[in-house]
Structures are given as C-alpha cells and as structure tokens.
Amino acid sequence: MGRCRCWVVSLNFKTKSMKQFNFNGDWKFEINLTEFIESNSKWNEHLNSYQPSKDSPIKIKIIDFRDFEPDPLKEQIETIQYIQENGKLILEALFNQFDIVNKTHGDSFGEHDWYHNINELGELFLIREIEVFTEHKDGQAYFQLNGEYKGDPEHGLIVAMHKNRLIGFDAIGEDTYKEVYEDLGAEGLTLKEYASKHRYPRKEEMHAPLPKYGKFKPWQLYDTADYFERVLREKKNKQLIQELESNNWNLNLRFPNLGKNILDIAAYMNNVEMIQYFIKRNADPSLALDQCIYKGSFSKESIIALISNGVSIDTIGNYNYTPLGFEINNFVRTYYSIALHDKIDFNNGLPPKNEEKQIAQIEAYKNKIKFFYELGADPTKCDTSGNSYIDLAKKLLDNEAIEKYKVVNQLDRCFIKKKKKRSWKFWKN
C-alpha cells in the first residue's frame, strides 16, 4: 500500500465552535486544548515535581514517514481537528474505560476505585503530549496520550485511542502498536509493512528544508544530527565546512532529539577547530560548555577553546551549577562517602595507598577543581543561588562532618594558584 496522494488534500478545517487547524510545516507544536488543560489542573503536585498551570498547552507530535511529502496524512490532519473539537468526548470515553488501566497498573496503590466522576480523572492521569500515528482507520488516525500516572509514578502511562475508543495502554518507553495493528485487522498488515519500509533505517546524511514550508521533517533532522556527529568525531572539518556553507546551514538550529546545535556537537566531540569556526560565525555557545563537562567526556581542549573565545567559565549548566560548583559537589559527596568507611588519611586528604580506586576518584575531582579555578572560575559563586564552595559543602554535610573530615581544608588546598616560573635571562657582557 503506497502513500496515495490521488485525492485533493485540504489542510484547512473550519467548524462552528473551533478555529481551523492550519498545518504550517511543524511536526511538533503546542496547542491549547481547553478540556485537557482543565483536567490536568487537577493533578496533585506531591506525586511529581511537575505541576502544570491551568493554561499549560498540550504538546502535539505528528509521526512522519521517511519521504519528502511536506504534509501529514489527511487522516492525521482530520484527527487533530477531531481532538480539538471533541476534547470532552475523548476524556469522558477515557474516564469510562479507565478502570481497565487501573486494574492492570494500579497494584502499587492496592485499590482501583480511586475516583468517582470525570472531574477527578486529572488526579490520576496528567496528559503531557498527544502523538498522532500514521496508522488510520475510517478516515481517522490512531493517537496516543502520554503522561504521568498515579498508578505508576515511576514509569508513567501511554494510552492509544481511535476517536473515542481505548485501544491499548502501557508504560512510557513501551509502545501500543501491537494493539493498534490488532484493531486494524487484515488492513493492519498492509499498513505495518508500509510503515516499516518508510520509517527505517536511518541514514547519516545532511538534509535541506523542504521548499513548501521551508522546514524539516523530523526524520531529516535525526539523519542530519547523526551525520554531523560522525563527521565532527572523525574531524572531517574541510568537508563539513564546504557542505555547511554551500547549504547555508543555520548554525543555531537545535536538533529536537538532542537539544543541541552544531557547536554543542563539536564541543561534545572535542573538535577544537570547529568550535572556533562556529563561534567566529556567531553560533550560540550558551550550552556548549555543558557538552564537554557534564554530558560528554571531560575535555580540557574544548573547554579552553570555548573560554578563549568568550564563553564564561562560570556559565550555569543543566545541573544548576557552574562547572566548578559541579565538581565541588562531586568531590564532597565522594570524599565523604569514602571517609565514612575510615579510608581517608586526613593529613593529606587521600585514602591509604592500597585504595587505588578511591585515590583516583578523589584526585580526579581535585584536578578538575584546580583546572577550573586556574581558568578563572569564581569559588564564591558556584550555583544559581550564588552559593560559595563552603555553602555547597554545608548544603551536603552538617558542620560536625565538615569539621571532622576537614572537607573545607581539602577544598582550600585546591584554590592555590600555581606560581609562574621565573624566566631567567642572561646577558653577555
């Protein structure tokens, strides 16, 4: 079954009660679904750190094929319009069938009668995202609700539906395609075969935006990100520069699956030449330092290249610490853990000589702290709250432990800058 385009596809739908949905080339976006947002507002914040406001929009993700058609399937567009118009109907149907989900996943709470009316559905299931599948039936695509679930706080919940019918469910990280294809029956075999041929395999190659909207399909960005990672890792810099300039690549485009732009990837791959190239061409460096400190392998060369080109060594990273603060946190935790087992000689701050693994751990953190300090890191402001290195230690340990194990003394030793060697000159008489 090919992806037939023999019909005239209209991407604009008008209703009396809802605004028309206009596809603009974005396969991921947010939308204000009033009924879903109101339901989510009932979520109990103590179950999860995420607490939505009453106007938090719902994320929509349209699943794509590996082709160059700029628009989704007609059935996918119809389904988004259906969801916009029938939020109350969908939630009522989900409410009426939710006991099936509870009986399967609700054992952690030991009961299944958690709610009595639809207004309490949001206390059980917080819907973050709706995925619109390519699989379809009777003019409507299947879709999947993804979110937090009271019955399984660790893994969350996904629920597949077709219009107002519950098709299947599982934990986040799994999928519901088995149930979808079972619901499709014989037609599902044809759709499954087509989908498998047009979603995989991924190829490492650089793509350009599709002309109709001037935007990428998701699969194009996945392939391009894979390609950039490979050529930057292999340091095929001349080839990459030529391709970037000939295609007028937007250096600040962030790949949705990675959250990185091409400078971030260069930093992660420790490609110093390309780090310098991208920064000189005004690539956004705000997350680049993160890539060679927290997420990737520790790379002194990349760090120095970024700092030398104007990136602040005191940049706050994803863990809400500066690079120095992050390593201080690691050191204090590790040092204290080892000290608790009486494996620290407090005169030199190291475990006994036969504890080589622990010695290596502590020395590695100390060396990183010294490295950042020598690059100009400020030990008096180590996190988003402006805490000093002493404050960080006190947040992790009580005063008695800090004093007993001489934690601050060990850190103080790291903040002694090396004296520059005197350069002697001798003159001939």
Report on the architecture of this protein.
The chain has 429 residues and is an alpha+beta fold. It folds into 3 domains: 28-197, no CATH class; 218-308, no CATH class; 323-414, no CATH class. The protein has helices spanning 34-40, 74-85, 87-105, 121-124, 177-184, 186-197, 218-233, 237-246, 262-268, 272-280, 288-295, 300-308, 323-340, 356-374, 389-396, 399-404, 407-414; strands spanning 28-31, 58-62, 125-137, 140-149, 157-162, 165-170. A 6-stranded mixed beta sheet has the order 1-2-3-4-5-6, with helices on both faces. A hairpin with a 2-residue loop joins strand 3 (125-137) and strand 4 (140-149). Helix 11 (288-295) packs antiparallel against helix 12 (300-308). Residues 1-17 and 423-429 have low confidence and may be disordered.
